[in-house]
From TrEMBL:
Pfam families: ABC_membrane (PF00664), ABC_tran (PF00005). Residues 347-575 form the ABC transporter domain. This is ABC-type multidrug transport system fused ATPase/permease subunit. It comes from the Bacteria. Residues 30-311 form the ABC transmembrane type-1 domain. GO terms for cellular component: plasma membrane. It comes from Leifsonia soli. Keywords: ATP-binding, Membrane, Nucleotide-binding, Transmembrane, Transmembrane helix. GO terms for molecular function: ABC-type oligopeptide transporter activity; ATP binding; ATP hydrolysis activity. The lineage of its organism: Bacteria, Bacillati, Actinomycetota, Actinomycetes, Micrococcales. Its main location: membrane. SUPFAM superfamilies: ABC transporter transmembrane region, P-loop containing nucleoside triphosphate hydrolases. The chain crosses the membrane at residues 29-50, 62-86, 147-164, 170-187, 251-273. It is found in: Cell membrane. It is a multi-pass membrane protein.
Length: 584
């Protein structure tokens, strides 16, 4: 099975998502623009007043200088207050948007088809919720406000400079062609580099996660050097991607710096000559020189964040690729609060086929009908297609061809998908209380119902230990047996329409597992159960047995009939019986 990366939003989808966020927070955005615009205007008044004071003092006109100085101090204080308010609104807005994006990306991953997430590299899933979120977070909370501040400051200051003396102000824009051309050159080349940089983090995270998850196997098989090499290759991929961006910056940054300081030198030289010629005043030259100096830092921030926002844009496109899934999903009905019995549910498969890799069939064609409320066993040699049939039937893997109907409904049909629960030999336990893990199946369930479910699953000693056992914290340290018992207790609470069991009791002692599987059918009489079986001692109690080989159903009937009519089933049963007898 090849790894498929999670979806990435197109440029158009990314722009539309950003515009939607801006509309959603339009009031805050307008307030943000108003504060920053006011701060930029106050910042432009300061040099103008200073230049006026200088001209008046040079001319020997001291009248009113005290008032002018007081106004200048007031303007500086006002600018500080307004800037503080602007940054406060920026950070609050940024935190709100950041929280929204974080929730949406998690919601989007959960809403994606299980097959998509299952096939994606684990590092890609991790990177979307860590590195990408961090990149967007920095851009939203700091980058966008800084770009806004820089843009408004540059615009207001330039307008003020031309209002004072357009001849001197012309020197301010000498560096503009250098800035525009060099930045355009850089952005065209840096965006693909940032895309690759983020993707490389996913590759590296995948290598690290695979090593951690398989730590026992790595040590047992002596694979330390091989896994270290794989992680080093991933780290090298990250370094190579980042170095490509750094080489671009090594060209761009010096050009940007020259565009900053060349105008300042020209303003001083050109303005000084105009003052000597008596065409302009010293105050005008000083005011415009101060404007150039004022513009440098905001312009530097503007270009820096324009660069960083390239990374943020790439990260946002990756986030929107999964967060945008929520817009196209049909809201699912909440889990019922009461333990209502499900309606009887018939399963129909019509010419169903499935391929993990194109051109390599793993299943089918399979045509099958399972009556509502029956318990059906799937048996066959390893690789026969049993688990694949379970995945397709449950909707985790969509069929490559054919149709699956449960209670007359397809997974994407009217009425929404049926309630299908899949229990495999590996079950996840969420960090939290035992009560929390059980309430995942039913949002509103009584303590007595949870206790009954646990007792039925074979954990009587767990809840008999003390009265508040449901409030005990559980985590990933639970044994495999306890995990499977907890998963089966959740099944009893969920009351699914269809239940798919894939070695769901493999870690539970044999006799206990045998009794539990029989009780499931009794306690869930309306549930259609498909059990992928490896312990064949339960075969005589099954309503129906399907024998699979090579992705096809090659036998169908009851235990006694199949022993007589199906050679493969008889072979499997005799092999199990002999092995079981030898183990006693």
């Amino acid at each position: 099975m090849t790894a498929d990366w999670l979806p990435v939003a197109s440029r158009r989808e990314t722009v539309e998502a950003v515009a939607a966020l801006a509309r959603e927070h339009s009031r805050r955005v307008l307030l943000l623009i108003g504060f920053h615009l006011s701060a930029a205007v106050l910042a432009a008044i300061g040099p103008l007043l200073f230049g006026t004071i200088l001209d008046e003092a040079t001319a020997g006109r001291w009248t009113g200088l005290g008032l002018a100085l007081a106004v200048l101090c007031g303007v500086v204080a006002g600018q500080a207050v307004v800037s503080w308010l602007a940054h406060r609104v920026s950070y609050i807005t940024g935190e709100i948007v950041f929280a929204q994006l974080r929730e949406r990306v998690i919601g989007g991953i959960v809403a994606l088809p299980f097959r998509t997430v299952h096939r994606a590299p684990a590092g890609d899933v991790l990177a979307r919720t860590t590195n990408d979120i961090d990149a967007v977070s920095e851009g939203v909370r700091i980058g966008l406000p800084e770009v806004l501040v820089g843009s408004l400051t540059v615009i207001v200051t330039t307008v003020a400079a031309f209002a004072i003396d357009w001849r001197i102000a012309l020197a301010m824009i000498v560096g503009l062609p250098i800035l525009v051309l060099s930045t355009r050159w850089y952005i065209r080349r840096s965006q693909p580099s940032y895309d690759e940089e983020l993707r490389s983090h996913g590759v590296f995270d995948t290598a690290v996660l695979a090593t951690i998850a398989g730590g026992t196997s790595v040590r047992t098989l002596g694979l330390e050097a091989a896994r270290a090499e794989a992680m080093a290759a991933g780290a090298g991929h990250v370094a190579a991607a980042e170095n490509r961006t750094l080489r671009l910056q090594a060209v761009w940054f010096p050009l940007v710096q020259s565009a900053y300081y060349l105008p300042l030198a020209l303003v001083v030289l050109w303005g000084g000559w105009l003052v000597i010629e008596g065409v302009s005043s010293l105050g005008s030259v000083v005011a415009i020189a101060l404007y150039v100096q004022i513009v440098i830092d905001p312009l530097d921030d503007l270009l820096y964040w324009a660069d960083q926002l390239q990374l943020g844009r790439s990260a946002f496109a990756r986030i929107q690729g999964v967060a945008g899934v929520l817009r196209g999903t049909t809201p699912q009905a909440e889990a019922p609060a009461s333990l209502d019995r499900p309606a009887p549910c018939t399963i129909e498969l019509s010419s169903v086929c499935f391929e993990y890799e194109k051109g390599t069939p793993a299943l089918g064609p399979v045509t099958l009908q399972v009556e509502a409320g029956t318990t059906v066993a799937l048996v066959g040699p390893s690789g026969a297609g049993k688990s694949t049939l379970g995945l397709v039937l449950s909707g985790i893997e969509p069929p490559s061809a054919g149709v699956v109907r449960i209670a007359g409904r397809t997974a994407d049909g009217a009425g929404g998908p049926p309630r299908v629960v899949v229990v495999t030999q590996e079950q996840h336990v969420f960090a939290g209380t035992l009560r929390y893990n059980l309430q995942l199946a039913q949002s509103d369930v009584s303590d007595s119902a949870m206790s009954d479910a646990l007792m039925t699953a074979g954990t009587a000693e767990w809840i008999d230990d003390h009265a508040s056992a449901l409030d005990d914290e559980v985590d990933g340290d639970l044994s495999a047996e306890r995990r499977q018992q907890l998963a089966l207790a959740r099944v009893l609470l969920a009351q699914p329409e269809v239940l798919v069991l894939d070695e769901a009791t493999s870690a539970i002692p044999r006799q206990q597992a045998f009794g539990l599987e029989q009780r499931l059918g009794e306690l869930l009489p309306q549930t259609t159960i498909l059990s992928i079986v490896h312990r064949l001692d339960v075969m005589p109690s099954m309503d129906r047995i399907l024998v699979m080989d090579g992705g096809l159903i090659v036998g169908d009937g009851r235990h006694a009939d199949l022993l007589e009519s199906n050679a493969l089933y008889a072979e499997l049963w005799n092999a199990w019986h002999d092995t079981d007898a030898a183990g006693r």
